[in-house]
Amino acid sequence: MNNSKDIFIKAEELIDQSKIILIAGHKDPDGDSVGSMLAMANYLKSRKKDYYLYTYDKPPNYLSFLPLFEEIKTTLPKKEFDLLIALDYGNFYRLKISDFIPSAAKILSIDHHEFSDQKGDVVILNPSADSTCQMVYSFFKENKITISDKIAECIFCGIMADTGVCQYQNTEIQTFESIVALLQSYQFDWKRIIRETTYCKRTINTMKLWARILDRLERDDKSIMAYTYITRQDFKDFKLPYDQASGLTDLIKTATDVKFVMLLKNYFEDGFIEVSMRSDDQKDYDTAKLAALFGGGGHKYASGFKMQGTIDEVIKKVKDALKKHT
Fold first, then answer.
1. Strand order in the sheet with 106-111
2. For the domain bounded by 5-199, which CATH number is listed?
3. CB of 132 within 8 A of CB of 111?
4. Fold (CATH) for 204-325
C-alpha cells in the first residue's frame, strides 16, 4: 500500500511537469473506472492542461450524464503524450496500451486493486480503499485542490458503483464519511447517480439477453461454483452493444447455494476469453487466489483473468483447479 501524503504530492508534481496527458481506464470500463477518469479530466480541464481520455471498449451508456463523458475515445491519440494517468486497472494489460506508451513518457498509477503489475514513476495503491474514486478524492484533498461540483459528481458516482451503493464488503466508515462530505459540500444530482448505478435502465432486449445467459447457469460437481457464459453472437441476436452485460455478474452473485460465481465473456476482439468471478463476505471465497492460478488477480471477492481457448476448455481448467486446490 502506498497512499501517504508525500506520494500524492509527487503525483501532482508529475501533472505539473507534463504538457500532454493520456488518461486511461481498463477495458470493459465500469462506474469507478469512468468516474475516476472523468474526475481527473475535469480537474485537468480547469487547469487548461492538454489531455486525452481513452478506454479500449466503449464506456457504458448509462454513465453518459457524467461531465465530459462524450470526450472518452476508444481510439488512441495520434500525438505523443508525456504522462499517462492509469486508473483502476489491476493488471496493466487491461489498459490495452502497453505497446503504445512513448519511451520518454512518465506514468502515474492510481488503483485500489491488490498489487499485481501496476506500473509507474508514481504508484498510489491502496487495496483497502472502497474505490479508485475514493483515492482520487484523497489526491485532491491532500494537495488542497479545489473540487468542483462536476468533479464531486464523478467521484460520488465511482464510489456508488464500486460499493454497490454501499452494499459490498469494501464499504467502510470512510465510504460514508466521504459520501456525507460530498453531499454537504457540492451540488449534483446524487439521486440520479444512485438510480443509474443500481438499475442502469435496461431495455426489454437486455432483459431477454440476461434471461438467455441465466438459462445457461450451471454448478460444478462440488457446488462450489456457479458459472455461465456470454458470446458475441448473443449480442448480435438481440442487437445490443457489449455494455449491456454490465451488472450481470453482480446479479448472478446473489445465488446463495454456491461459494462464488463465474461469468465467461467470449466477445472481445483479441480472441481471449475473459473471466469474471464474484463472491462476498457471507460466502467468503477468495476468488483472487483462484484467478492468480491463471495469471489474473483482483480483490478477494471480485477478480478475474483471461485465457485463450474455447468456453468448455476454460471451464474445465477452472474445475480442475478447484479439484486440486479445494
1. 72-73, 50-54, 20-25, 83-87, 106-111, 122-125
2. 3.90.1640.10
3. yes
4. Diaminopimelate Epimerase; Chain A, domain 1 (3.10.310)
Give, for 115, the enclosing helix (H) or strand (E): none
Helix (H) or strand (E) holding 108: strand 106-111
Q: Which amino acid is at 134?
A: Q
Helix (H) or strand (E) holding 15: helix 5-17
| Tens digit of pLDDT at every position of the chain (326 positions) | 555 789 999 999 999 999 999 999 998 899 999 999 999 999 999 999 999 999 998 998 889 999 999 999 999 998 899 999 999 998 888 899 988 999 899 999 999 988 778 899 999 999 999 999 999 999 999 999 999 999 999 999 999 999 989 988 889 999 999 999 999 999 999 999 998 877 666 889 999 999 999 999 999 988 899 999 999 999 999 999 888 888 888 889 889 999 999 999 998 777 789 999 999 888 999 999 999 999 888 888 888 999 999 999 999 999 999 988 87
Whole-model pTM over 0.85? no
Beta bridge partners of 123: 109
Spatial contact of 306 and 90, defined as CB atoms under 8 Å apart: no
Which residue ranges make up each domain of the chain? 5-199, 204-325
